[in-house]
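Re: that chain you flagged

S.,

Sorry for the slow reply, it's been a week of failed gels. I finally had a moment to sit down with the sequence you sent. For the record, here it is as I used it:
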Amino acid sequence: MKPILHARVQLSLLVMSVTLTVPAQTPQGSGVIAGFVRNADGGTAVSKAKVNIEVIASIPAVATIPPMFTDSSGRFVFANLPLGTYRLFASASGFVTREYGQQEFTTPGKPIALAAEQRLSGLALQLVPVGTISGEVKTNDGLPAVRVPVKATRTIFTAVGTVQQTVKITTTDDRGNYRLFGLAPGPYFLSTGSEKPLSGSSADAVSTGDFAVQFYPGVATLDRAIPLDVTSGGELNVNLKTYRQRSVTVRGIIIDAQTGNPPEKVQWQLIYQLANGNTVSFAPPENYNPLTGEFELRNVWLGEYILEARTTTVDAAAVEAGEAAWAVFPVARVPIVVQDGGLENLRLFQSRPFEVTGRV
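Prediction finished late last night. Pasting the structure tokens below so you have them in one place:
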């Protein structure tokens, strides 16, 4: 039995020896991405700029790569990068963040394709100094407007048309002063004041801290506003005026056009469009008399709305429609402009939606 045991031990040692001598298959990347970060105004080096490299795809897969900072000459080097595609960003205090290959501030940059053993050097990222808009906001009686929102927006193009994109927003201090810092060069619309209730119910009237939205140079609507041109490293001083927001009452009468009688129950909505293109609504507090059709909507802020009054009581037509009952609820929908003094003697006529069939 001893010779047999000895043979088994020798075999086990041989297998262990073979296993331990197999080299690990872990390929190491050796590609390099290097370059410089410069000030677009004058071309001087930007030291201590933070450079981030984002991995789009790589072989072997790499999740993240630590950022690095430029030296005194503005130079950066990312070594030992695997084969892959990357995006390169640079940022520094007092400058607009920029991506490599970026032509406009609102458009993406250019991805970098790196082959194995490839060295990409001399990549340049030009950082543009930020601009600033500052000033003070006063009420129409000359007092500082305290803790009032001030924002800079710019026009962008989307699939639904042009909308306003909020770039920077701040609030005034106890002296009515504000400062919007870090703006990329370009045109901006400047506004101050409180937005209307975004959604839900405006159960309470406006508070003493609510101010009406006003655009530079002191107009109530965007179509009359004048854009401000922010230059590279420039600072604009712009003073604004606003007034305390007011809430008024909208009164009128509503009739069902089919029956000639007031509806039994009405659901009220005030719909309006934000500067960014989104449509929102809220339900104002109301008094309604179903015997006469007289209604009163309270705490309505000044502005432009679509007033929607929909009956939610299921009638014979709704029962007949079955699952599509909501589609035949009588509704009145009219545009209104609410100004000082509110609205009086508004007449609404509800009608039932109807279906049009055809071929396009």
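What I noticed first: Residues 252 and 345 are 5 Å apart (CA to CA).

Talk soon,
D.
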